[in-house]
Here is the input.
Amino acid sequence: MQAFSEKPVALAIGEFASAIDVASLSPVTRGICRELMIDVAGLCVAARKTDYVRASLASVLSDGPATAMGHGRRMNAYDAALVNGTAAHGEDFDDTFEGGPVHAGAVIVPAVLAAAEQRGLDGVAVMKGIAAGVETMCRMSLVTPQAMHRACFHPTAVIGGLAASVAVGTTIGLDAQKIARAMGTAGSLASGIIEYLADGSWTKRLHAGSAAQAGLRAAFLAEAGFVGPSTVLEGTHGFYRAFGPSVKPDFSHILDDLGAAWLLDKVAFKPFACGTMTQPYVDCAIELAREGIAAEDIVSMVCDVGEGTVHRLWEPLALKQAPPNGYAGKFSTPYCIAVGFIDGDAGLRQFTDERTRDAAVRALAAKVSFVIDPANPYPREFTGHIRATLRDGRVIEKRRAHMRGGAHEPMASQDILAKYRANARYGGWDETRTTAMEQAIETIAAGGPVQISMAAG
Here is the structure.
């Protein structure tokens, strides 16, 4: 393990977070924080009638001042963080961070909004908390690249709890030492394995909500005087030793330029409702279809891929070519390529159980395979490649050097807003309610009162 003779890493994060001045943040950073709230709100509304959100709501134990977005019911902060986080991440349409990968918005935004509503805090506190939490989560994701997935953990789940403790601690005004102690406690609450890949079951959907809830609890405990280990990150028995043991941690990714350079400015907003690393392959498939090629003219599609993506998105290949349900389809690159080629999209409607059973989609997915490219830049960059062989002997290749919506090709603010509105319509909201939520979030971003409950039901 890397030894430190200086202050604990968690304390350095606490000092950074507690010192954030929202007025000094760049317009880009403030804009990302606002857009994360918009994106999360739309995703919560889009998922509001799903079985997994209904199950989350059924687990709520008590009423309170916090809001479940998309529902009229008010509840305590812990339950709101769980319900909103689960809804926001449930369709895998939420933001991501290239290099991690982690989904920060679905963890941090629900945790911070729940804390703000519970305590009656304003938009300044919310923006400060979101900035602190998202930045922490992005930086933490770079410390042991690929090691958490290799150890069968979901980085969003395990990193998310610690980052949410920073976010909530910052929102409620904890000092640096208490934020570090909150991280120490959150390290013992971190959890989330990736066995959902076996059958498309729901646990990944829960991970963002459970991380938001864990961070909220850890911050409230620290506020009350509960002490967690400040060496939670670098310690001999610490977080990275537990969750990413195969890679020596490099804490420079957390500490270098902390507070001066903002990684959250590079957060990627997804154009498609599926696994992060699959997104460029979907764009390649759509480009291929635009050549006027019919699915039945394709003999095979072979994709160059990064080795670190194979065990989650490509294997076992027969299962990925015929996913058992819509949710499993989101983590099947062959299915995503096939449905992207045929439908020209990989949105919410492409990942129903019925769509995954479509004979034409399955037939095309069965033609998709992969080879590992040792030079693939994953996880630094998310790239795409398809080499299609046609019945007439032609070979056509499509490549994407990066993920659309990410740092190299960011989604414009108006496109993020359009995505929010489309998701709200999908969830059954009318224009009046959709606009009311937009205005509520704009008010928060400007430092005003937190009144999302006025539009959430």
About this structure: The chain is about 50% helix and 5% strand. The chain has two domains: 9-270+413-456, 276-400. The CA atoms of residues 156 and 326 lie 21 Å apart.
